TrEMBL record:
<dbReference type="InterPro" id="IPR027417">
    <property type="entry name" value="P-loop_NTPase"/>
</dbReference>
<protein>
    <submittedName>
        <fullName>ABC transporter ATP-binding protein</fullName>
    </submittedName>
</protein>
<dbReference type="InterPro" id="IPR050107">
    <property type="entry name" value="ABC_carbohydrate_import_ATPase"/>
</dbReference>
<keyword id="KW-0067">ATP-binding</keyword>
<feature type="domain" description="ABC transporter">
    <location>
        <begin position="8"/>
        <end position="241"/>
    </location>
</feature>
<dbReference type="InterPro" id="IPR003439">
    <property type="entry name" value="ABC_transporter-like_ATP-bd"/>
</dbReference>
<dbReference type="InterPro" id="IPR003593">
    <property type="entry name" value="AAA+_ATPase"/>
</dbReference>
<dbReference type="InterPro" id="IPR017871">
    <property type="entry name" value="ABC_transporter-like_CS"/>
</dbReference>
<dbReference type="GO" id="GO:0005524">
    <property type="term" value="F:ATP binding"/>
</dbReference>
<dbReference type="Pfam" id="PF00005">
    <property type="entry name" value="ABC_tran"/>
</dbReference>
<keyword id="KW-0547">Nucleotide-binding</keyword>
<feature type="domain" description="ABC transporter">
    <location>
        <begin position="258"/>
        <end position="501"/>
    </location>
</feature>
Length: 510
């Protein structure tokens, strides 16, 4: 029997950045008609490896073969011509253009655009891969799932039969995940090779045929999915046995720490993004918020933190109305509140600074005199580095050079260091490896035991159910339902996220 030629074959690939070895002697083969997962902790080398496959980086040494032919990519365009389509976490779409216009954007169509031919080709692709979407809709009006489909159609239109999906379901509803998996299975049936990068282990087990585990820039193993278990894969990623359970301790609920009443908010275009939001959080309580991206979660967090002004409604923290106060005034009033934003580098930390200076950003104004004493902050930085197992050359290394998981640990460590009474967390584990995720979940429970109230905005519905005492579901700036964490299903949350109404006594439907 003749052995199949791999669609992708990477031999002895090595890539370094200064003293950091990102990939070391990588050997990887991926075949057509299979979905191949890449797993590894943040900083394991997955992104670097795929960036070499897509022409963003060039290997220092080693060889890449596409369908048996040796290639040397000097740009992403070379990779596209070789049939490789990269679908990134952050979409590269033009919001005020239609899906159809985005698909053909960048293609040379001559002076005149033959729309009939273009639409015929797109329609053939949609039929082949069982894709249903309104291509005349503008991207700005699309859901996250629809935008993902447009990105996939873009690369299929360019002739890709090797697709790399990087964290494709980060903010998907269960229904959107199901639709994507149906598309991936159709690609597999049509002979495509699909590389699936994800930190969601259940999804890896559901959709993939083979799994390659990377650790510290090296391939640890490649195994068939049928021989794998989630716990085994997690141990391989970390290099030791890890605990994959959320310790949800029973804590006596304390006094009310946060109360929001009739909160409404308008964006710069005078569109109402929050509509009469009302809820409360008590000390020792973890309240989760579920919702598809753009339902108002970010605006809600920023309103509570004093980052954006409130037009209508009240926000009470520990009985004090904080509406109209900026973040510094809120702190000066004795309100201890920590905010971990969605954009950890754009808004939470300064990438060019080291750990010490980023910790100082939160505390320097408490020091007296003209000179800043860094001694105490240096001690805190070393303590946080050790306690949270932050992988960095030293505490003076620019944090922009660290992996996403280590950056998030620094941010979390800084915020917890001020001993908050209210902790607001927006997508704190987005894109983080499984071990780091569970470290953060357990830190949340430690805060709960310290009588801290926690507002947790997340996208993994299993985690929301397991971690939270109460779950609020947002849709189009409204709270559609308030559910108890011990008595709800993913399907019920998913329906509310999509705007449906549930009718059963155990759910308080708004």
């Amino acid at each position: 029997m003749e052995r199949k030629t791999p669609f992708i074959q990477m031999e002895n690939i090595r890539k370094t950045f200064g003293k950091v070895v990102a990939n070391d002697n990588i050997n990887l083969s991926i075949y057509g008609g299979e979905v191949h997962a890449l797993l590894g902790e943040n900083g394991a080398g997955k992104s670097t490896l795929m960036n070499m496959l897509s022409g963003v980086y060039t290997p220092d040494s080693g060889s890449i073969y596409i369908k048996g032919k040796k290639v040397e990519f000097s740009s992403p365009m070379d990779a596209i011509k070789a049939g490789i389509g990269m679908i990134y976490q952050h979409f590269k779409l033009v919001d005020n253009m239609t899906g159809e216009e985005n698909i053909i954007l960048g293609k040379k169509n001559g002076i005149f655009v033959n729309w009939k031919s273009i639409r015929s080709k797109i329609n053939d692709i949609c039929n082949k891969y069982d894709i249903a979407i309104d291509l005349n809709k503008k991207v700005q009006d699309m859901s996250v799932g629809e935008k993902q489909i447009i990105e996939i159609l873009k690369v299929l239109y360019r002739g890709a039969n090797i697709l790399v999906l990087d964290e494709p379901t980060t903010v998907f509803t269960p229904l959107e995940v199901e639709k994507l998996f149906n598309m991936i299975n159709k690609m597999k049936e049509n002979g495509c090779a699909v590389v699936f990068i994800s930190h969601k282990m259940e999804e890896v087990m559901a959709i993939c045929d083979k799994i390659t585990v990377l650790r510290k820039g090296e391939v640890i193993t490649t195994i068939d999915k049928k021989n794998a278990k989630i716990k085994m894969l997690a141990d391989l990623m970390v290099g030791e046995k890890v605990e994959l359970s959320i310790k949800k301790d029973k804590v006596a609920i304390g006094n009310e720490i946060l109360r929001i009443h009739n909160l409404s908010l308008y964006n710069e275009d005078k569109v109402e993004v929050l509509k009469k939001i009302s809820f409360n959080i008590h000390r020792g309580e973890v309240v989760g918020i579920a919702g598809i991206a753009g339902s108002g979660q970010r605006e809600l967090c920023e309103a509570i933190a004093g980052i954006i002004p409130i037009k209508q409604g009240e926000i009470f923290v520990d009985g004090e109305n904080i509406v109209g106060k900026n973040p510094r005034e809120i702190i000066d009033k004795g309100v201890s509140m920590s905010f971990i934003p969605e954009d950890r580098l754009g808004m939470g930390l300064v990438g060019s600074m080291d750990m010490v200076d980023n910790l100082l950003l939160k505390s320097y104004h408490y020091q007296k005199g003209f000179l800043i004493d860094k001694k105490e902050t240096i001690e805190k930085a070393n303590s946080i580095k050790e306690e949270l197992d932050i992988k960095t050359p030293d505490i003076y290394h620019p944090i922009k050079d660290l992996s996403g998981g280590n950056i998030q640990k620094i941010l979390l460590g800084r915020e917890l260091d001020i001993n908050p009474s209210l902790l607001i967390m927006a997508y704190p584990v987005r894109g983080l490896d499984i071990n780091t995720c569970y470290t953060i979940y357990n830190l949340i429970n430690e805060q709960k035991k310290k009588n801290v109230g926690v507002l947790y905005i997340g996208e993994d519905l299993d985690v929301l159910i397991e971690l939270c005492d109460k779950i609020l579901v947002m849709c189009n700036g409204e709270i559609r339902g308030e559910l108890m964490g011990h008595n709800v299903t993913k399907e019920e949350i998913g329906l509310l996220m999509g705007g449906a109404t549930l009718e059963r006594e155990e759910i308080d439907v708004v």
